Task: structure prediction
Amino acid sequence: MYLYFRLYLWAFTQMFPTGSYVRRHEQDGFKPVLSDRYQMMYRFMDWYSQKHDIKIEHRMNSGKEKRDAKFLADGWAKPTEFLVPGAISGTGSKDVLPKGSPKGLIVQYDGCYIHGHTCYLTDNVEDKQQLKVKAEKTEKRNKYYLDQGYDLLVERECDFFRKIKKDPDAQRLVQEGRPEFYQKHKGTVKTQDLLQAVKDDKVFGAYQVDISIPETWFDEFKHRKLEPKEFFGEMAPLFLTTEVQFEDIGEHMQQHIIDHGLSQKPRKLLVGGLRAEKMLIATPLLRYYLQLGMQVTRIHQVVEYGRTKCFQKFVDFVTKRRRAAQGDKSKEILGDIAKLIG
Ligand SMILES: [Zn+2]
Result:
């Protein structure tokens, strides 16, 4: 049991898919479809932080959002000496250079649809009344923050899109936030390129593939003494669910079923297999399969993500607590709690 605990914890120190993603389908020649609109708020806050030399904290760099009594803010910053450009003063000061509010700065990145902004992004929304209701709700939120004495910086989606076009730093930040293979391949790609990227560890995410063991070894595996069927036969590499007929199972188990009067109907089982169709495989595992000498005969689709060790802090926390508890009775309870959560 102890070993399993350690294995789980180790697994959490690995790379995980994070951030914006790109999908590619075989029928479109693996043309990328990028989805990073929901990530733009973080790009905006990082860009603004750099440009005006303040630190805006948000969910991606601090792990949480700021909650005031009523609302959850996208970002916040400690009190600034002077009001940052574009912000509204929470102290109501009309000075040319008003001081920052002692309560600090609230940052909101407002998606134009969600917040009912009338602009080119919401042109095709038919229910204008609904937009109005959303806009009023947003107004109320803004008023709430200012009444509480916060400085408030609101950036609209359409405004940031315009800034990106003009500002090379913003462009760079947006570009860097996109998955790595996509950054270098913005158009269609071939199956071969996608497989090579897996082998070279230049892509991270999951591939939906037809995969099997080869009839004969590819050149690079020709030195192996066993044929592919024998090599993989000992321990079938693919884990999949499939319908298993009574006739498919071995003589001994057939007899066991007959002797004990068990059901002879086909059943769905998790088995070890030598080939699979349309199987979704994470790229690190797919790379391992390719290194073993397996063949991918077809890629159906690809989902590419950014990668980070996003649970590393959690693992460090658990490890530290558990280590400290060893040989120190007073810290035993902290160690036990850490053991409970990870
Ligand atoms: Zn807008």
